[in-house]
Write a structure and sequence with these properties.
Structural class: mainly alpha
Number of strands: 2
Helix content: 55-70%
Mean pLDDT: 84
Shape: globular
Distance between the termini: 27 Å
């Protein structure tokens, strides 16, 4: 990977000097067979791996998440389980969402502006070095995916979500005694409830921005 390094107004700046990935147009992607489409887009997501973070474990987590989403994930099932939406997305709609998701992830690897802003104060340094929103969201997703219990990461049928929702309803019902509430709060199940909330928020973001994060 050819890069250039210099000290900019906001600090060290590493610039990639050649194009990493250039995903085809949405119209072209929609003309492909499902197999060809998924193979092509996976390769483009894969090429972004070194730009995701300067931390190796974030890059590794990105690749693991990418493989799970492409090889074992069923977005329509996830959408049904998490949001209760039973109308499956057609292939064309899914292509558009994955295309939008690629743009989102690509933007997460970029500076907001080509030219560095003028820096005069310490507050200016903090401002110009503040990650863009896409970067913050992606880093949060990678962090939570890394910390997720293995049964949450590997359960492609989302059975864990069904159980977590039951425990959540039990807690908020007000019908359990203090002993049972204490047992739940000390158990692994309360972690699953937290990840159920995380899934709902992520899927709500997907619905609002037409993504497949």
């Amino acid at each position: 990977m050819r890069t250039s390094f210099h000290i900019g107004p906001g600090g060290p700046l590493l610039t990639v000097k050649h194009q990493i990935s250039n995903i085809p147009s949405l119209e072209y992607l929609q003309s492909l067979s499902p197999r060809s489409f998924f193979t092509l887009t996976y390769k483009h997501f894969f090429r972004l791996r070194h730009l995701i973070s300067d931390r190796d474990y974030h890059q590794d987590q990105y690749l693991r998440l990418l493989k799970r989403r492409f090889l074992r994930g069923d977005f329509n099932l996830r959408r049904q389980k998490v949001l209760g939406i039973h109308d499956d997305l057609a292939h064309g709609a899914l292509v558009k969402r994955i295309y939008n998701t690629y743009i989102f992830v690509f933007n997460a690897t970029c500076n907001m502006k080509d030219e560095p802003e003028t820096v005069k104060t310490y507050d200016d340094v903090k401002r110009v070095n503040r990650p863009r929103l896409e970067t913050q969201i992606l880093q949060t997703i990678l962090k939570l995916e890394e910390q997720a219990p293995i049964h949450v990461r590997l359960d492609t049928e989302y059975r864990w979500l069904d159980e977590a929702s039951k425990r959540e309803q039990e807690l908020v019902s007000g019908m359990i005694d203090k002993k049972r509430a204490k047992e739940l709060n000390k158990s692994r199940e309360v972690v699953d409830i937290g990840y159920a909330d995380y899934e709902r928020m992520t899927m709500a973001l997907n619905e609002s921005l037409d993504l497949c994060l």
